[in-house]
Amino acid sequence: MLLASFEECVAYISDTYVATPVLESILPVPEAISRVDVAIEQRLAGDLSLPLLYYIYTEHYSNELSGSLQFAYEDFLTAHSLKRPSQLRPIAQQFDRQKLVCYLRNICIPQIMDISTEFRTSVELDEERIAVCQLLADLDPDHKPDYQTEITEISRRQLIKRRMKEIEQSKIYVDIESIRKLAANSLRESFLRYLALPVTAPEVVEQVLQAIRKVAADRREVVLLSLPPDEKVAALRSIVSDIRDLFVSDSEHGLDGYLSVRIRHGTLDGQLRSALENAHLLTPRDKNTREYKPNVYWRARLLVTRPDTQDAIERRLARFSADFDAVVGRIKSEWIQVKTDVRGQGLFDFSVTDNQVAVIHTSVGEETTFEQLLDLVLVTLWSRLDTVLAVARERIATAAKKTLDDLMASLQSDIAKLAKGVDVSDLDGAIKSVRTELTNTLNRIAQWFQLPKQTSTTPFPIVDAVSIATESIRRFHRSSPFDPQVSIQEAITLPGLLLPGLVDVLIIAFENIVRHSDLSLPKVEVTVTADDYWIWVNVRNDIGRGVFCDAAVARVAKLREALESGGYRKSVAAEGCTGFHKIWKIIAHDLGGEARLDFGFSDETHFFVEIGIERPERI
Q1: Res 230 pLDDT > 90
Q2: What is the b/e burial string over 233-257, where b = at least 16 CB atoms within 10 angstroms of the residue's CB?
Q3: Which residue blocks in 420-495 are alpha helix, DSSP H?
Q4: Considering only CA atoms, which of 286, 390, 318 is closest in space to residue 348?
Q5: Rounded to an integer, what distance in angstroms lies between the CA atom of residue 434 and that of residue 415?
Q6: CA 6 – CA 12 distance, rounded (Å)
Q7: Which listed site, 60, 393, 502, 542, has its alpha carbon 20 to 30 Å from 335?
Q8: Mean pLDDT score of the chain, rounded to an integer?
Q9: Cβ neighbours of residue 31 under 8 Å, at least 6 residues apart?
Q10: Per-residue model confidence (pLDDT) at position 478
């Protein structure tokens, strides 16, 4: 076949396909693909027919040439001195309209355009796709509603991503306004008694001032103050300690409650386990024996014929699961904890020191008000929080990263030794891939530990909260598709400040479904309704056989009793439970206004959670 006639063949295939796609099966696409070589690719680089040929083959035969399709996409643009497909607009009339529409609609999509160095981020890819859709709307007006729908969906995805980033940056939080009110109600009289006590000896004050001046002159200087016993200083220490306790330990408004809800309860586990579960490297525990189950996924894929080798590999994978869970458990129970004295465990060290009390003491005079003292103590606590967050970031980014990577490296090495002639390249590749992804995940987790940034006040439709929570669960459990059916009575919009709390509530509810429904793919329904006073969010899901039982019904009844009696407070910062204490804390205190919470078995095959929050305009 002469090259010219082959070019005509490729042109004929693409012309026929874009005019009548149903004729694809009678076109000699595989035969044409087999004749394409480097010389032909160079000759047809500026012709739409070649990328369209690769598209037809990839779409209807095999994705083995998806890389060639990407190169053909880019070569076509380069041949016309362009870098982006949207730049085709001024020269669009030079090309067959149907071919250009097919190229723009089906080939100029983010996953193909990603090959280009022109786009540095996913946001830039999305923006280019929007520009392509706008061009398509002009070239193909009959399908303009389709392109407008795609633009709307891309814009919504971008908004969701921005909202998710905001939530990532609000993991660390203290409800300062509530802390101020609690402190004023409980400590004002103690402050007045403190002011009435005899004035501290002048030489003690001078000692503190000299220390402050020395540190101010040289930031590297470390000065340890040892103050003599003083009733007034002791009274101030007590007040400072009480404010500190409200700041870090108050179950409803303090730091530790938010660490529990936003990091320790499910979120940290989900992020760290996601890549490993997706690669089937982790196995669950048996509910009765608490032993780790055999890894049936890799047993089926490794095709080990010797029972002793198979048992050895399964035991090693089970031990890895136990070791991994133990490390994550230590991070939660020993690192991401608040301690208020030197004997406690936790990176969030808020021990009250003599230096802190001394500096605050010298700053308080007869004219100082309680509000001024409170401001001074809170500034000290925020400064301390900034310091311990830096420690947490460093520990996650270094020690946690090394510990977990050492676990992965040890597993990889041991599997290679145990293989004994068995092809374990797929398992080895999975471990290598997870090691890289786990490093990136830990870098991202380390960035959670930042001082809180201002949450957007832009109102959000409640469906966005559902979408963000759903996407979070999908990231946590990539091997178990989570796709709730969502029904919303009306376009309900809430203030932006409520978004993090509502997302936290939904994540806890969804996480319960994944972990406790005992189904690999439970049906989940989310229904949102509203009346003049309430907004109701109902989450209903299927449950497996055996989940509904007398013991489970009794546990639900006990949880309800604890919530009704107020006994939930001591459980807000605790881990390992279903999270209903945390849900109630969020909706009753963080979202503002009145709240309602109901949950339980609607029948033997369904569980429900119903949340009621007062409409913000009524608060």
Answers
A1: no
A2: bebbbebbbbbbebbbbbbbbbbbb
A3: 425-446, 462-476
A4: 390
A5: 15
A6: 10
A7: 502
A8: 89
A9: none
A10: 80
Record the tokens describing residue 509, joined without a space.
């509810």
Which pLDDT value is given to residue 1?
41
Beta bridge partners of residue 611, listed in sequence order: 537, 597
Q: Which of 42, 30, 32 is nearest to 9 (CA)?
A: 32
- Contacts made by residues 5-9, CB under 8 angstroms, sequence distance 24+: 6/32, 6/35, 6/40, 7/43, 7/44, 7/47, 7/49
Q: Look up tokens 């700053």; give the residue.
A: 363
pLDDT, position 2:
45
**Residue 147: Cβ within 10 Å count:** 22
* Cβ contacts of 408 within 8 Å, gap of 6 or more: 431, 434, 435, 438
d(CA 307, CA 305): 6
Strand ranges (DSSP E) for 515-554?
Answer: 524-530, 534-542
> DSSP state, 541?
E
Q: How far apart are CA 125 and CA 131, in angstroms?
A: 10
Taking only Cα atoms into account, the Rg of the chain, rounded to an integer number of angstroms, comes to 31
Element (H, E) at 180: helix 176-196
CA-CA-CA-CA dihedral for 520, 508, 540, 524, to nearest 10: -40
Q: Which two tokens stand for residue 254?
A: 């303090």
Quick one: DSSP state of residue 456?
A: P
CB atoms within 10 A of CB 502: 25
User: Token pair for residue 109?
Assistant: 């999509």
pLDDT digits (tens, 9 = 90+) for 492-515: 888 888 888 999 999 999 999 998
Of the candidate ranges 78-87, 129-138, 210-219, 252-261, the one whose mean pLDDT is the lowest: 210-219
* Coil, helix or strand at residue 539: strand
Higher-confidence position of 452 and 608: 608
Q: How far apart are CA 557 and CA 580, in angstroms?
A: 12
**What digits encode the pLDDT tens for the residues 411-444?**
999 999 998 778 899 999 999 999 999 999 999 9
268, pLDDT greater than 70: yes
DSSP classification of residue 574: -
- Nearest CA to 17 out of 66, 70, 57 is that of 57
Kind and range of the H or E run holding 338: strand 338-339
